[in-house]
């Protein structure tokens, strides 16, 4: 079975995003709360529907939950913009999109602490989910709202989705 590489190196950052060190994925996800940066990309189509991915069972954080279309860690030495383009290509096969920053915030769970750079885009092209995802599809905003609080989504997505919907597709 596939698994996350717990030896993968992540940058450690302060709350402003300045790099202050490095640690492995395993160290960042073991409850240490070492702040590390991630990117999110919310993909809308021109009908206003939101694409979500279902996380595979083998993921070390929130397996089998629906989540942001694209989400991933920023690699050591990588910029937010490069990480966003890399993750969109890896997870959905998307290369031609224009991201818009929605927010930067800190997300904390019992296992980790992330500095999230959340973006959105409108995209009507072909989406080809990789084997990093169990599945993916577009959801109407009503479907998303009806599923909040029912254990369908990751807590991170649920905390971010109102901000995403309020920004809409415009």
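^ structure tokens above, recovered residues below v
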């Amino acid at each position: 079975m596939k698994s996350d590489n717990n030896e993968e190196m992540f940058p450690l950052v302060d709350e402003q995003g300045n790099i202050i060190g490095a640690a492995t994925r395993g160290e960042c996800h073991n409850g240490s709360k070492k702040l590390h940066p991630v990117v999110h990309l919310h993909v809308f189509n021109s009908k206003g529907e939101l694409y979500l991915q279902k996380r595979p069972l083998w993921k070390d954080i929130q397996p089998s939950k629906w989540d942001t279309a694209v989400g991933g860690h920023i690699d050591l030495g990588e910029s937010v913009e490069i990480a966003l383009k890399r993750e969109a290509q890896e997870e959905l096969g998307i290369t031609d999109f224009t991201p818009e920053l929605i927010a930067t915030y800190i997300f904390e769970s019992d296992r980790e602490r992330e500095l999230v750079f959340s973006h959105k885009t409108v995209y009507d092209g072909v989406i080809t989910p990789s084997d990093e995802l169990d599945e993916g599809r577009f959801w109407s905003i009503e479907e998303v709202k009806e599923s909040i609080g029912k254990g369908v989504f990751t807590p991170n997505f649920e905390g971010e989705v109102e901000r995403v919907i309020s920004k809409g597709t415009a």
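Strands lie at 9-13, 19-24, 35-44, 50-54, 66-68, 70-73, 100-108, 113-122, 135-139.
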